[in-house]
Amino acid sequence: MIALLVLVFVVGYLGIVLEHNISIDKSSSALLTGALCWTVVAFGTDDPEFMNEELLHHLSETASILFFLMGAMTIVELIDTYDGFDIITDRITTRSQTKLLWIICLLTFFLSALLDNLTTTIVMVTLTKKLIDKDELRLLFVGIIVVAANAGGAWSPMGDVTTTMLWIGGQVSAGNIVLKLIVPSLVCMLIPVFVLSRQVKGELPKKLFSDNANQQQTQREKNIVFFTGIGGLLFVPLFKTVTHLPPFMGMLMSLGILWMVTELILKGKEEKFRHNYSVYRALEKVDMPSVLFFLGILLAVSALQTEGVLRGAAEWLSQNISNQTVTVTLIGLLSSVVDNVPLVAAAMGMYTLEQFPMDHDFWELLAFCAGTGGSALIIGSAAGVAAMGLEKVTFFWYLKKVSWLALIGYFAGIAAYIIIN
């Protein structure tokens, strides 16, 4: 039965990896894989009551991650609905390609840590499309944005879903992960940007921004929503530290506050304005297929964990690869081929907090490698897949132009972590 379970999981994985080849959305493959894996577990168990207890236990952990993500995504979409990110983008006025590269990458790095790498990639790729009209140059910028976004997300508990999973699971603490990974993540971003900046030279012909004549919200309303939303995201780690409640509770509280603020802003406005700028409008733009993808794949991994498959994999790794750094480095590189979410979920199932307690080097390096290793291939991260969709970046173009830069940064970041610690 375990062999059948692994087979279902592998076939489901292939469906996710080959999403574009078979023209089937990865979310549907993930949901089907999760449901089928637990179906196999159900047919092979002699204790249905224990199986249901395990399922509900894993579902509670999964739900905490999904609620956190949905809250964060809704806040970000609300800010974007009110054009709040213009507060940042309107201040970029340089025409130098080199300066613009550094500005965009540094902005992407820190914005990714504050929000998340997927949303930041969408925002920054959209900005780049407004600034650069040369296709080849713009694609280079988009490629390096993926690297910067993944590097920025790795050191923040809110920047990458895998770091969020480790934070919520108790493997890392918010303050420590920031302290230990910010320098390696900076190195991971700075070296590829430095190398690329030697190739990108010259001046941009003109600024392509245009004022939005149909803009209905005032600057005051834009500022209120932007700073309330960003403040709410920053409030979440503090809330967890003070109350010891799960992070999704702080995120839901922040969403509730921002929702109330927008309702007060919309009070007395005409119906068309209320419709265009309400929370319901933002909810329509939330990427629910991604949320369902996480649900499916986490359910599938939990089925493997329940049947002891991950424990067996951990024993095999321990017997054949004694060096923890090598193990985690390989996991990071593997995340460029398959999604990093199930890889981290698998690692969390393989190794217990008794074996590696909170803030152990293993968990910290895992957060870095899983967050940044996906940059090696365009399909290796959510940020890369988003950029691929927005700018039609091809797999082999990215492999030729950007992958080697991402790998240089990846190994340099690992070296920086080892030296520091």
Unreliable runs, pLDDT <50, ≥5 residues?
208-214
**How many domains is the backbone divided into?**
1
Radius of gyration over alpha carbons?
22 Å
- Beta-strand content estimate: under 5%
Shape: globular
Order of SSEs: HHHHHHHHHHHHHHHHHHHHHH
Would you tell me the overall average pLDDT?
Answer: 84
Our count of helices gives 22
The total beta strand count reads 0
The major β-sheet equals:
none
Q: Alpha-carbon distance between the termini?
A: 43 Å
Roughly how much helix do the residues carry, as a percent range?
over 70%
Query: How does the helix and strand content classify structurally?
Result: mainly alpha
List the helices and strands and how they pair.
Layout: H1 2-17, H2 19-22, H3 26-44, H4 48-81, H5 86-89, H6 97-114, H7 117-131, H8 135-154, H9 161-168, H10 174-197, H11 219-243, H12 247-266, H13 271-276, H14 279-285, H15 288-306, H16 309-320, H17 324-334, H18 340-350, H19 361-372, H20 382-391, H21 395-401, H22 403-420
